[in-house]
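Reproducibility note. Readers wishing to regenerate the assembly model reported in the main text can use the exact inputs given here. Chain order matters: entities are listed in the order in which they were concatenated for prediction.
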Amino acid sequence: MSTSTPARAAGATADFLDTRIGASKLVKEFARKIFPDHWSFLLGEIALYSFIVLLLSGTFLTMFFVPSMAEIHYPEDALPVTMQGVQMSEAFASTLKLSFAVKGGLLMRQIHHWAALMFMAAIVTHMLRIFFTGAFRKPRELNWIVGFLLMVLGLVAGFTGYSLPDDVLSGNGLRITDGITKGVPIIGSYASFLIFGGEFPGVDIIPRMFTAHILVVPGLILALVAVHLMLVVVHKHTQYPGPGRTNKNVVGFPLFPVYMAKAGGFFFIVFGVLALMGATMSINAVWNYGPYDPSPVSAGAQPDWYMLFLEGSLRMMPGQAEFVVGGFTVPLNVIIPAMIVPGILLGALALYPFIEAIATGDKREHHVLDRPRNVPFRTAFGVAVLAELIMLALAGSNDLIATHFSLSINDITNTFRVLFFVLPVVTFWITKRICLGLQRRDREIVLHGRETGTIIRMATGEYVEVHKPLDDFERWTLVGYEAPRPREIEPAEDSRGVRRKGYRLDSFKAALSRVFYEDRIEPVTPAELAAAHSHGEHDMLPGGTDNVEPTALAGSGQDTGHTS
Amino acid sequence: MSSKQTPAQGAGVGVRGRDSGTLERFENPGLHPHKPRQADINASAAKRAERQAVTLFAISALASVGAVVGYFMIPLDQTVASVRLSNLTLGVGLGLGMLGFGLAAVHWAKTLMSDVERIDERHDQRGSDETRAEAVQLLKDGAADSGIARRPLLKGAVVGALALAPLPFIVPLVGNLGGDWDVSKLRHTAWRKGRRLAIDPTDTPIRAADVTVGSIFSVMPEGLSEEEHYLEEKAKAVVVLVRVDPRELDENAEHADWAYDGILAFSKICTHVGCPVALYEQQTHHLLCPCHQSTFDVTDGAKVVFGPAKRPLPQLPIAVDDEGYLVAQGDFDEPVGPSFWERLK
Amino acid sequence: MKALAASRRHRLAPVLLVLLALLATGVVYSMIAPAPKAVAEAANADDIATGEALFVANCATCHGINAQGGPAGPSLIGVGAAAVDFQVSSGRMPMSSNGPQAPVKPPQFTGEQTAALAAYVASLGPGPSIPTEEMVDPTLGNAAAGMELFRTNCGQCHNAVGAGGALSEGKYAPSLMDTPPSEIYEAMLTGPQSMPVFNDANITPEEKRDVIAYLVAQREPAAGGLTLGGLGPVSEGLWVWVVGIGLLIGSAIWLGAKSS
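Running the prediction on these inputs yields the following structure tokens for the assembly.
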């Protein structure tokens, strides 16, 4: 019986696994786990899959890369011709060899570098999605911190990898790192010796970064990815607001087979796109820069995109800030742009969930996401920080902006110096206004229906546009949110005139809360809708009344496949 | 507005007003009714979707095979064109192999697997009061059993020993990382009195007469490339040499005697964070750092005119030897490169 | 009015508005940015006398009637034929508009006219002469030696592969991707505009040819595919956002959308 043999084999395997590790319990627990479906929930997966591609292509590269700074002469008969006979480190020479003499080596290098850029880009877009939809709220604050650490580790992984080929571009990046390190008060020069094993550049930095790049950092990333995903399972995924979605359920499709096929298939899509980029788009051709030497530097000397904000911060800072106190040099012209500004921006990002929790005073769990417009302060704050980071990245590209738009680099830098202070304020204010405007429009639509573009003439001769009222499902998406109000605090003194403890802290919390929630638009209430209907009968004219009968369908979602 | 759905807490609450019987908020209407797809109701649509997925899987398989064939068929024959072709073939094969597979799987899931939305219940992260009480009791019992509260000496010993235990690992690690820790090296370069200036990278000594007005030479100490710690020394000693019309220089400047007939030598290492300041605009006599655009005026002692650097580039005092070659009068009189805490000590 | 209001709220209205805003920005920019103007044609001849006639007609306004220089242009006595050949055959001179520096444009003179002008200026005082074909032949140069020279002396302004870069106050180092070898040689020799001079003591004639060999080698198609302008990490970052994240978010939207 040819059909039953595989079935019997599968059954035997299943039995083997179940009797050893209780596989049936695992399958029962996870196979029908529900995941909500939305494109923005795949941004984190792009990061995860890019990381897997990084591990695969990186393993390939380690087979051929030699992390040594010993000086050799490149062979006279090897490609590329511009490097023949040139003195270089073994690290650089092995990078050339694996690109030109190992079949598929260049492809893996290019895939690896594109995947690294993609990894960081995906992490950033994923963080933006989490931030603007409020997915970091209780109970997920810790996972936000884990994600934040993953982003920082991604920066470290990218920077150490970028420096490994020991070319002029990355070597100057290391030199800048050395300069910044030396600027740290008191311990600066010792910290520089610590990193480089003595004076810059030394012969230790490439082997050290190699260990960090292929062992320490990826190990930490893997461990934190495991924690990150475990917490996703513990919390179950968030979901966008919509009919049937509550804080007590999760609506979507089962892991097996739908998400296995979709998310699994998406891994292959990510890999495919990265491979096609590696096949057709040249990236970091280090032979253009040549092996590291402390004397040369090329125009357009920039780090990979995720470090550009730091580069821009350094470029923008006026030099006057350096000063000497008691004979000791304090280079604030380096410390402010390289440590304080990024520290504030990243610190604000990491701590935001806790700051917002204080302002809101909300202790409930949140699993239904916010539409960004419904939380104007958060959205505006996020856009302001984002605008600042983008502006810093542009400032880090000021020379390319100058050449490509025929502008003066000095004017650009001076403009950015002003924008550094003006831009966050302006973008905050504009975004907040836009959010409030969108909320008002949502109210309009709920109260009066959508415009249909159909004009009719009333018996009285009046022309009106037919508005189509929303059905219950559409309406719920627009009115289901809560608009938090500023916290109210107990008076400073009780009935007997005794000043109570903790009043100062409470009043701080209340002030913070007012900043967050002073301006708000409440969702439409049933009473308001009823009132609006009784005023405007024309909203309910024929042509606008094909909405579904609410009572007939309201509970239908309940019957569809409960799994728990 | 009546609904059979149990009102849930949080965002989905329908709250009754305190005073009246009217609803203060709308109620969650429950899931939207499922709309069947073409493939659910039309057998030929389902068949078409299946064919599309199979085609994509086939493209994937062909591309994978193509990449492997390309690996064996395309030799790397010492031309860039062959590397380019090999890279393209392998990459496109790998890419389409992956992409085709992924698109097929997703298409399959979207069109042929069930798209009826399902619901999982959520439960609070917080344990129930009983669980919490039980946990607290377990910890209390354990702590009491260990006796840590009753034996303060033991507590102190544990903490002390635990704090010291990592030191035998950390001290040798950090202690060795910095090499000889001799940070005074940052103060000296390879320049000595009488050492000739040579062109980087050819190591050709430079006659004063060869340095014409408007030119710039990238310079290092002669014979440096033969020395130990060549890169570390070069990283401090590189210099740019420019010649300007002596009339443009202030003869009464503090270090007027460090120049030779309008020839000036400045450290190439930026006083900001250490990039090579190599970009010279001969008309304005400005040296620029291409990394962060610090701009130095060579006719004014390389003072900063724009950008993030604060201090002028250190100037190397130069003279001419008997044979007409440019030589250093000595080392720089200050540390070159970026600022550090004890720089002026 | 209602129809207008309705169209204003059309879902494509924001897109249209953005396009209009972009267009307006473009128009304003094109009015602010300096625009090149056309320059009159000149006459035709090939000895010093004709060169002088051409000079008086086209160059003397700025450089003075005897090339002694003036408020608007430097003296040309002693700059040599190489400087004239570089400036005129690359179209930089005659300069057509006031800008931070003279841009490359289609040459205003024929080869013979340029040679006549060069001969006239060379007759005013000794200066560097135009290199021979052999001196600038990239096949005779050593690209690897050129790489070391280029990155030490040239890359800081012209970028690692000669894609060009920014100088201060709106000046720039031009791209060398299409520059003829003779002009590369002449530029090093004469130090036009902001560029410093690299005389034969600094970079020998053979070394100059090595630099040319390196730059010509950079024009070959790259091993890894499209070069994305050779501008380094910034353009690579831009492409990963536009192409990479763009394609993957597109795929994710398709993945998350309901099948019809």
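We highlight two features of this model. Residues 38-112+147-177 of chain B form one domain. Confidence is low (pLDDT under 50) at residues 1-21 of chain B.
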